[in-house]
Design a protein that fits this description.
single chain; about 425 residues; alpha/beta; Urease, subunit C, domain 1; TIM Barrel; 9-stranded parallel beta sheet; 7-stranded mixed beta sheet; 17 helices; globular; binds zinc ion
């Protein structure tokens, strides 16, 4: 593959700095050079031309802002159809909307169409890496991986494990563990893919299924664990009733070997001090899903407390309980959640957290997250011209920080002009390519 050189405004966060603000780098006239799908260098345009770069080979994106591909740490592939469903909290939401939507994935053709639509929608929103719940059907999870391979996306996913308190159409009592093993052998560490052992949450798996899931984590190195934890008070009470031997909710996973440094726990709103400390000690990750937490009335995550304890975290859209796949919309809700707790989540912190920060929490920072030489060239081209209100606001911004904060508060997929994975354009707003 030949080299490519993009000329644009470029922003990202460099590794190895003490604070997120110090890590921020912005070059208002830069050339980002790629080779074989990887970053070769990022320098001011004047320096690139001094090095002998032929201007006729440059792909001109001047005026636009190039930014690393966004990372969504928690999202459900089968739930696009139920975004914005009215009036329920977690447990009723699952029974009323989620389980019927996921049951429809029993059809191979339907699941394929929906999985394709899901990945295309991620790219349209500028998301190039995501940690994804599939359904409990093996074919649906396999399709997701196959489609992600085609688009060269970094997808960490797993088939949902659930063998109790689940409708018959989703109950994987007979096949759950064997299907998971097959998927791990077929897709884990293939190309850019990773497998996450994915119990929906403790309450829908028997202790035996959780124990066998933990055995898989032992059997195959490098697996992630992806599940939900401590989202809603009624859910916590219900779960503790199902696991009378567990000391708390986190212990329902710990006792079966499902709490590792690569565990990703969505929500974690109502943790006890002890649970929070054990997560900090393990180095596992909290997926912060503000849109979903507000929408289902689950509660406000205390982000400041997680930060003070050095707990790994990464924002997640949690679609379909979250109301948008846009990580900008997710960060706008995150800002409001912190404001309600007398704490302000800055634009630089927030954008760090959906790029290099999330990559670090997910143990992917050697591959993605910024434009350091050798990293995989996942990036987005942002331009507010398709979003009139945002473009008006941006024209009045005096600094890049102000502009980025306007993106966070107002942007959606209209801001994303192009999405590239491994140096290849896989989406353009104009062509709506997919
Ligand atoms: Zn979720």
């Amino acid at each position: 593959m030949e080299a490519k050189h993009y000329r644009a405004r470029v922003a990202h966060f460099r590794s190895g700095f003490a604070s997120k603000a110090e890590a921020f780098e912005y070059i208002d006239d830069a050339v980002l050079s790629l080779e074989n799908g990887r970053v070769q260098q990022l320098v001011p345009a004047s320096e690139a031309f001094k090095q002998g770069l032929n201007p006729s080979t440059v792909i001109d994106k001047q005026g636009a802002l190039i930014f690393p591909g966004l990372i969504d740490a928690h999202v459900h592939a089968p739930q696009l159809n139920i975004i914005g469903s009215y009036g329920e909290q977690l447990l009723e939401w699952l029974n009323t909307y989620t389980f019927p939507a996921e049951s429809a994935f029993a059809s191979v053709e339907y699941a394929l169409e929906k999985n394709r639509q899901f990945l295309h929608s991620l790219l349209r929103h500028g998301t190039t890496t995501a940690v994804v719940f599939s359904t409990s059907h093996r074919h649906a999870c396999a399709q997701l991986f196959e489609l992600a391979l085609e688009k060269k996306m970094r997808i960490i996913a797993g088939k949902v494990l659930m063998n109790r308190n689940a409708p018959a159409a989703l109950n994987d009592h007979e096949t759950g563990i064997a299907d998971t093993r097959k998927l791990i052998e077929q897709y884990h560490q293939r190309g850019r893919l990773g497998y996450a052992v994915t119990p929906r949450f403790a309450g829908t798996s028997t202790p035996e299924q959780l124990q066998r899931a933990g055995q898989l984590v032992d059997d195959y190195p490098g697996l992630w664990v992806h599940t939900h934890l401590s989202e809603n008070k009624a859910e916590i009470d219900w779960t503790l009733g199902l696991f009378p031997e567990a000391s708390d909710y986190l212990d329902c996973y710990e006792r079966y070997g499902l709490h590792t440094a690569k565990s990703i726990f969505a929500h974690c709103i109502h943790l006890t001090d002890s649970e929070r400390q054990r997560i900090a000690d393990m180095g596992s990750t909290v997926a912060f899903c503000p849109s979903s937490n507000l929408f289902l009335g689950s509660g406000l995550l205390n982000l400041k407390q997680l930060q003070a304890m050095g707990i790994h975290y990464a924002p997640g859209s949690d679609v379909g309980a979250g109301t948008s796949l846009s990580m900008f919309r997710t960060l706008a809700d995150a800002y409001k959640v912190t404001q309600l707790q007398q704490h302000s989540y800055s634009s630089l912190e927030a954008l760090y957290d959906v790029t290099l920060g999330a990559a670090t929490s997910l143990r992917l920072d050697q591959y993605i997250g910024n434009f350091e030489k050798g990293k995989e060239a996942d990036f987005i081209v942002l331009d507010a011209r398709s979003h009139r209100c945002l473009s008006t606001r941006v024209s009045h911004c005096r600094t890049i920080q102000e502009e980025l904060f306007a993106y966070i508060t107002m942007a959606d997929d209209r801001l994303v002009q192009e999405t590239h994975t491994m140096g290849e354009c896989v989406y353009t707003q104009q062509g709506n390519r997919h």
